[in-house]
Amino acid sequence: MSTPPRIAVAGAGVAGLCAAEILQARGCDVTLFDPLLTDEGSGAPNASALAGGMLAPYAEIEHMPPEWIAAGLAGITFWEAFSQEHQIGFVKKGSFLVAHEGDRYLLRRFEAHLPPETRSYRPVVDIEPALAGLCSSGLFLPEEAHLVPLNALEALRESIRKGGGRLETCAVTPEALACDYDYVLDCRGMGASGDVKDLRGVKGEIVIVRNSEFSLERPVRLMHPRYPLYIVPRPDHVFMIGATVIESGEAAAEGSGAGTVSVRSALELLSALYSLHTSFGEARILQILSGVRPAYSDNLPHIRIEDRIVRCNGLFRHGFLLSPVMGQCVADYMTGVENRFSALFMQTGNKKERAAL
Ligand SMILES: Cc1cc2nc3c(=O)[nH]c(=O)nc-3n(C[C@H](O)[C@H](O)[C@H](O)COP(=O)(O)OP(=O)(O)OC[C@H]3O[C@@H](n4cnc5c(N)ncnc54)[C@H](O)[C@@H]3O)c2cc1C
């Protein structure tokens, strides 16, 4: 019997965990390294822990070319299957895009990006009755889904451990690991910015509130000329509201950890939330947080092969949506199998060429 390939994964955010889970299911011997892992495997404040958990290939169409929609739908299929055995708060009830009556032109403008068969307006009272006072109808995207990021990350860590994978609490460099493993996956997110010169951080700030007077079945996006907002329902009337998109050197300097939130951002998010429904005036603020999205200049994720180091990064706004497919592409590359999404993700080239970028 041949020895299973030995794979080291640097970084246990959603990218590293999805890749590790998929590689382990293919029979690989996987070791994950991350300084933020604790012995109990509790959540780490990386970009993944801050995410909304929306799986929204259509609602994100302004941030992702249409040829990526199929990869996003494949990501949803992965999480749906994973949720059969793990409690990750996966809900597939679509998402709903609304606007104040005076801003409806924003919905029509957005709609033009969607494939024609997905442009479906539905009465608010039928989809999200809690928003009946806001507008009469909204764009309904029934194929979308959402999950609870911390639950998904924990379930992946647990599954990898149960499958015999090792999780080591330490920082590593892929280069130092390369001589001991068949492949090293560099999934360090912003932790790789010292080695991956064209990676930048895009800060995102969020507010988490509890409002027992209000209920939603699915993520809602409020199209607004100045303060667009999304609100993701979580169990027990908890809502995640996000997110700012701030391009700044400060974001990169902060790395992927939780950072500070400006008063302006908090005011904008909370004002937009209050304009969605006045009951949020009495909601309790549970947390105000910020994270940094790792992004390349095209805002798309890439897999870069540098000999035995495979860099998976640049997931920007789509880490939960696209990490499963990215992990499948990596596993297929290592086992010599065709993957229909490889052309989207794969970039080859040697380290010197990349460093020169
Ligand atoms: C506010 C916000 C909302 C978002 N909402 C969504 C959403 O709704 N849906 C969606 O799909 N995406 C969303 N995203 C995007 C998503 O969070 C990111 O794309 C994703 O988390 C990136 O995952 P990652 O694993 O590449 O990076 P990270 O999650 O940052 O993980 C990188 C890991 O590498 C570790 N690391 C760093 N240096 C080292 C080292 N030297 N050795 C070992 N480990 C190291 C870090 O500790 C960290 O745990 C959101 C992002 C933000 C900020």
Key structural traits:
binds flavin-adenine dinucleotide, single chain, 9-stranded mixed β-sheet, D-Amino Acid Oxidase, Chain A, domain 2, 2 domains, FAD/NAD(P)-binding domain, 357 residues, alpha/beta, 7-stranded mixed β-sheet, disordered C terminus
Report strand %: 15-25%
Instruction: Please give the alpha-carbon distance between the first and last residues.
Output: 43 Å
Secondary-structure-based class equals alpha/beta
Provide the CATH superfamily of the largest domain: FAD/NAD(P)-binding domain
Query: Could you say how many structural domains there are in total?
Result: 2
Q: Major β-sheet, in short?
A: 9 strands, mixed
User: What is the number of strand segments?
Assistant: 18
Mean pLDDT level: 91
**Integer-rounded radius of gyration:** 20 Å
Query: Helix fraction?
Result: 25-40%
CATH topology of the largest domain: FAD/NAD(P)-binding domain
Determine the number of helices (DSSP H or I, runs of at least 4 residues). 12
Describe the 3D structure.
- The protein is globular and about 65 Å long.
- It folds into two domains: 6-57 and 148-199 and 297-355, FAD/NAD(P)-binding domain; 95-142 and 200-295, 2-Layer Sandwich (D-Amino Acid Oxidase, Chain A, domain 2).
- The protein is of the alpha/beta class and 357 residues long.
- It has helices at residues 14-25, 47-50, 69-83, 104-111, 124-127, 149-162, 174-177, 249-254, 263-276, 319-335, 342-345, 351-355, and strands at residues 6-10, 29-33, 54-55, 95-99, 121-123, 137-141, 145-146, 166-168, 183-186, 200-210, 220-223, 229-234, 238-242, 246-247, 284-295, 302-306, 309-313, 346-348.
- The longest helix has 17 residues, at 319-335.
- Mean pLDDT is 91; it is low at 39-44 and 352-357.
- The strands form three sheets. Strands 4, 5, 6, 10, 11, 12, 13, 14 and 15 form a nine-stranded mixed sheet that branches.
- Bound molecules: flavin-adenine dinucleotide.
- Flavin-adenine dinucleotide binds next to α1, α2, β10, β15 and α10.
